[in-house]
Specification:
With about 425 residues, this protein is an alpha/beta fold. Helix content is about 40%, strand content about 20%. The protein has 16 helices and 12 strands. It is globular and about 75 Å long.
Length: about 425
Amino acid sequence: MEKELISMIERVNYWGSSPQNLGFTRQAYLDKLNGLMHANLLKVLVGQRRSGKSVILKQFIDTLLKQGIAAHNIFYLNFELHGLSSINNTQMLSDVIQWFFTSHKPTRTVYLFFDEIQEVESWERVINSYLANDSTDAQIFLTGSNAHLLSTELSTYVTGRYVEIPVFPFSFREYTHYLNHEQDKINLIDFIDSSGIPELFRLNEESQKVAYINALKDSIIMNDIVKRFQIKNPKLLLLLLDFAIDNIGHLFSFNAIVKKLKGLGHQVNVTTVSNYMHYLEKTFLIHAIPRYDVRGKKLLEGERKYYLNDLGFYNYIRSSFDNDINRRLENYVYLELLHAGYKVYVGNIYDLEIDFVAQKNQQILYIQVTYLLHSDDVVAREYGNLERIRDSWPKYVVSLDDVKFPPRQGIQHIPAWQLTELLANQA
């Protein structure tokens, strides 16, 4: 290998020093990785760009070093670094890993960390060869910013031998711990008005945050969608992202989107819109929420809702003047459910909507979300929809009211800033 490449690899590894600038410790993710340490599985961190995957890897490497793992048994590559851009195919990746084994002669368990692995073409073949090699005791950790690459192709090469760990921008709890704030109403509103992306916490000016979010959006669109999927109409892709941002929490179908776009003079069809929205999902910019028939216990076709992976995209770059706190509060609740490990659906019962049906470990929660329970009509609607559900699973109404309402027909009221603790205490 070239001396320049070897020099770069040595600089990004920790054979002479521990990781630096580790930032806020995201302990929940480190605990998940620790819990998988003795499993012969690929550990795959997947999530939106700049959600903190690389920092989590470095924090985990630091944890290993502090546990006494020898530095020469740890190998780390970040394929987004310019100096490592030549490692972009299976031959180069294989050569670099073999160089590590030859030059550093690791003993016992080897820990291989590959950051943004999707930048290497056909990387699965190389990684699978080490996973399947019984003569090498290797724990392998990957990160990636595209769910399509890290699910469809992984399942082809290493069926049943990997586990995905979704990584999100900061939760409300992480946000308050990072800033040393209380988990109260004022700070929740600040959080909903801003973002969970760590870099934004260090930017003070609104214009800087707008510029950062726009640059992040462009990077995701160009690198993770347009180039990877050879998109022919990037303008339509951006238009659909704007549509999703402006319409978080609204039910709509692909046919409805096509009709709206055609009304604006765009030549589109359902297949293209469906594919493009799917690509936006696979880069973790948005999440599609299907409808669930509570009585029939089955998924419903047609309309769905979309929520954002981070509210910064709504707060800083939405194209409309709408600033709907109710829908942003819904988006916050949805993300907290994801952080807590729930699968989430939009409920339907007697043609009435239940904002969220959340499932985890064969347990179910029903949740209605509203800004304020400020009138009898709102109370009747939010509680009334839940009262139609006849099973005994917990039911909650979440709002930003200053006072906690008493239970009604077994339905609990939860101030939104207490939701994190509630979810943490669920079975």
